[in-house]
Amino acid sequence: MKIKCAIVGYGNIGKSIEKLVVKDEDFDLVGIFSRREPSTLKSPYQTVFYYQNMLLDDRFCGIDVVFLCVGSAFDLQETAFKVATRFSSVDSFDTHAKMGSYVRDLDAIAKMSGTLAIVGCGWDPGIFSLQRALFDAIMPEVKPQTFWGKGVSQGHSEAIRRIEGVKYATQYTVPKDDAVKRARHGETCFDARDKHERICYVVPDYQAYYGDSEVSEEQKEKLQKIIRDKIVNMPDYFSEYDTAVHFVDEAEYFENHTKMSHAGKVIAVEKQNPKDDSAKSIAEFSLELDSNPDFTAQVMVAYARANYRLQSQGETGAKTILDVPITALLKSDDNLKYI
Amino acid sequence: MKIKCAIVGYGNIGKSIEKLVVKDEDFDLVGIFSRREPSTLKSPYQTVFYYQNMLLDDRFCGIDVVFLCVGSAFDLQETAFKVATRFSSVDSFDTHAKMGSYVRDLDAIAKMSGTLAIVGCGWDPGIFSLQRALFDAIMPEVKPQTFWGKGVSQGHSEAIRRIEGVKYATQYTVPKDDAVKRARHGETCFDARDKHERICYVVPDYQAYYGDSEVSEEQKEKLQKIIRDKIVNMPDYFSEYDTAVHFVDEAEYFENHTKMSHAGKVIAVEKQNPKDDSAKSIAEFSLELDSNPDFTAQVMVAYARANYRLQSQGETGAKTILDVPITALLKSDDNLKYI
Questions:
Q1: What is the CATH number of the domain that holds A241?
Q2: What sign results for the dihedral spanned by CA atoms A174, A180, A183, A184?
Q3: Mutation target vs A (from B27, B336, B337; most A CBs, 10 A cutoff)
Q4: Whether residues B91 and B191 fall in one domain
Q5: Helix (H, G, I), strand (E, B) or coil at B197
Q6: What's the gap in Å between the CA of A206 and the closest CA on chain B?
Q7: What is the rounded distance in angstroms from the CA atom of residue B275 to the CA atom of residue B226?
Q8: Could you give phi then psi for residue A4, rounded to 5 degrees?
Q9: Could you report the predicted ipTM of this complex, rounded to two decimals?
Q10: Confidence class of residue A277 from pLDDT cuts 50, 70 and 90?
Q11: Contact A174, A150 (CB under 8 A)
């Protein structure tokens, strides 16, 4: 098998995917596509084209799977709908609250176009979704609890960066220790605020915002207030959490807040008796990641392999990670070695 | 959906399955089938029939899924092959080394008969197999490490019980702490003996073995030696491990060795650089089970639901847990809630 693939969006995840597919003999990277001016982007491995070319240029009609790596919150849905009219794709769409309508709309387009989109192929949504569903299937009376962090959420950082007047931003998701302990004893009644806090480090772009190289302290404070309000009230991303926003200068930002590590766990505790503390079964899945985008890229590459396999079986439409059997992900056909 | 099901084998797992299906509105328990004389077995919920009746009596031709709960090591394969000629099934076959030939032979029979068998639906083989394959798909350069215990292995205990002269037996699998630590630092070169020891508590049946109520100390020692040799040299089960065999009397056995708890973990560590100690990604899945047969039964019931769904999609043959998408296991159709 040789899977002709393309990367749309050349940020962290796009670059991580590129590194993986160029060294994987199953993949042939046809091109990298971006909305940005290609000459401003340099790839060590492949030509960067304008995104529009992928959809219009017949040279690219043989692409088997497109890796959609554009910023999730705002651009991904629109790009996915357009790409699905011609190509199969994998993405790591990560807005839990919008997943339902996204999958329904994409499914209709992909089915009509005879393409296959596998959505939410990261670790959460993604591998964690798989674990939650598995735990629920086996322990139906249990409500699996998910904790994220401490780590940088790319989706949330990106959402802040899209606010006017923000130059750089990093958002740390931090689990509350007490809640993790309670979850391991089988407690399941938490609201979003009980389990995590969100800590944001933001570098404002005062000059660009005010169109002036001279910006007063008062103007700075005003912009900070505007940004803070937009962050803490942002639905789906921040409004349901305790969110702290710190403004820092560029030097401090690059010194301390550019690592992309992350972590998380899914805990399911089945009790013998709901009233006592003794557990009947405890299942726990955890990840600790030095590089969130690298790991997300690894998941996307595995599901791209599955996408290619399922296409060859005639599958079309939009699927989530729950719809894909693990066999479809594997490089080798010797599945029995895992049993 | 109302899944007509039957239980073959009325030991620990069979009884655990019975408790689950009678309270699950999706299942209708048609009967319990055993090789033992039905009048010696009492079910609080359903009639116990001779196993042969299931295959011969037209009353039972509407069974959708058979839970195969007979002792794995010796009887399960033969039973599965016969059942597959008429019925679809799930089992928790657990001899890793024989899985390949079992799946191939069962696949041929089931395909010819238009039935669907899902094999190895426990936690290992089973949920752990799923995690190993998933880790390998996402982190292809990593060799996931599995640890079992401390806990009772039903398969190994049963294997001991089948030895002539054994009345009761319990086998504890115990992971070696040092090996777990090394695995969490990314070490992957272990042989079976490095990772676990096997500790067996056995009550011999001297009177039955010698056919005499008067048994000398010498005769006792002789039988103990025979049993010990058969255990430690048993291929697949014990021969590759450090195995300790302790002989105890009935009172001590029932006091201390009849719990059925178990535990285990699968660890996958991806390194930045194979030569240093720093991990790039760590994935870990763990289970702690108060009752191994109860949890195994829960897995089998989930895969019985999947079996029924996949049958309705025209699937036949023998499948492992890797071939079944998680969606097929779920009670609800609202899969997006897990994403």
A1: 3.30.360.10
A2: positive
A3: B336
A4: no
A5: strand
A6: 37
A7: 47
A8: -75, 120
A9: 0.89
A10: low
A11: yes
